Amino acid sequence: MQEELNKIVAGVREKAPQIATRAEFESYKATISGPKGSLTEVMKGMGKVPKEDKPAMGKLINEAKTAVTAEFKAVVERLEAAELAAKLGPDIDPSLPSPDLNRGTIHPIAQVRDEMVNLFRRIGFSVAEATEVETEHYCFDALNIPSDHPARDMQDSYYLPEELKVGNVSKHVDEKYLLRTHTSTVQIRTMLEEEPPIRIVAPGRCFRRDTPDATHSANFHQIEGLYVDKDVSLMDLKATLDHFVKTIFGPKAKTRLRPSFFPFTEPSFEMDFFSPDLGKLSNKWLEIMGCGMVDPEVFKAVNIDPDVYTGYAFGMGIERIAMILQGVDDIRYYYQNDVRFLKQFA
Ligand code: DAH
């Protein structure tokens, strides 16, 4: 059997470089690895090999298969290159490097978003998304945000007109639509669609009527997190956030939860972290997110029984994390598309 295999491989090595067309290649290949090919016949013979010889024979067959596959691959590559060269004619050399040196790079905000999302995916979170245009219900009511909350003010959020015009037709919409002011909307949409256990992160774009300055932009990004199951506790939240901070900012980073208030969590916290390895920002407590245990009112709005399930939620600005990590001191740089800025993060 071993001799037979050696013969097949040697034959392929000799014949392969002489193959000149695809048709020739296909018919030759069939004589080796087709249903009646010589290599296939040897493999069929495996059944008759005594049990103790099987591992050694299996290994030899695999080696022969690998060698034959490599030869066939080289033939296909050679034929493809010849076909391309024939198509392009003698004046074009496709192996020269591209003269276009302005290759794009991943935007620094997208880089940080992906790093954060991937870290949560590794610990069992999946990614959820929802629309940027939302109704007041998903953005505020279902999140237990009262009707007199300042975020609902026309001055703070971007509302769509109540008279929508499509072509010549003007239509009055009863629901108030706006651009979402936070990614917490995705909590509601996910809980309406899925049964617990739910464990998601939701990255996305948000909009507020802020006057742009070094730390405010009317258009920015957040990542929301939500975990709903039986017996989810504050300890789970704290452990997850510790893991997040240590992974992103280094193993020496520490976290602290400070009591706060959000209508959709009870209790609510601001999470600060502290790291000795952050250059100018070292050894200061930096606030980076809001979090807490999902308020029972929110569960009621999505028909989840708060006596059976508990959950935690958190939300943070991606720009804020990116600025800390990348040493950027003005959020506006991220949106000016100045290649000199963007290239520094390539
Ligand atoms: N949605 C809040 C904001 O935009 C951030 C936030 C706070 C999200 C606490 C949460 C949370 O999920 O639990 O300011």
From TrEMBL:
CC cofactor note: Binds 2 magnesium ions per tetramer.
GO BP, sorted A to Z: phenylalanyl-tRNA aminoacylation
Enzyme class: ligase
Superkingdom assignment: Bacteria
Keywords noted in UniProt: Aminoacyl-tRNA synthetase, ATP-binding, Cytoplasm, Ligase, Magnesium, Metal-binding, Nucleotide-binding, Protein biosynthesis
Swiss-Prot/TrEMBL catalytic activity: tRNA(Phe) + L-phenylalanine + ATP = L-phenylalanyl-tRNA(Phe) + AMP + diphosphate + H(+)
Cellular component terms (Gene Ontology): cytoplasm
UniProt EC number: 6.1.1.20
Annotated binding of Mg(2+), by residue: 266
GO molecular function: ATP binding; magnesium ion binding; phenylalanine-tRNA ligase activity; tRNA binding
Cellular compartment(s): Cytoplasm
SUPFAM superfamilies: Class II aaRS and biotin synthetases, tRNA-binding arm
Entry cofactors: Mg(2+)
Assembly and interaction partners: Tetramer of two alpha and two beta subunits.
Family per record: Belongs to the class-II aminoacyl-tRNA synthetase family. Phe-tRNA synthetase alpha subunit type 1 subfamily.
Official protein name in the record: Phenylalanine--tRNA ligase alpha subunit
Organism: Coraliomargarita sinensis
Protein encoded by which gene: pheS
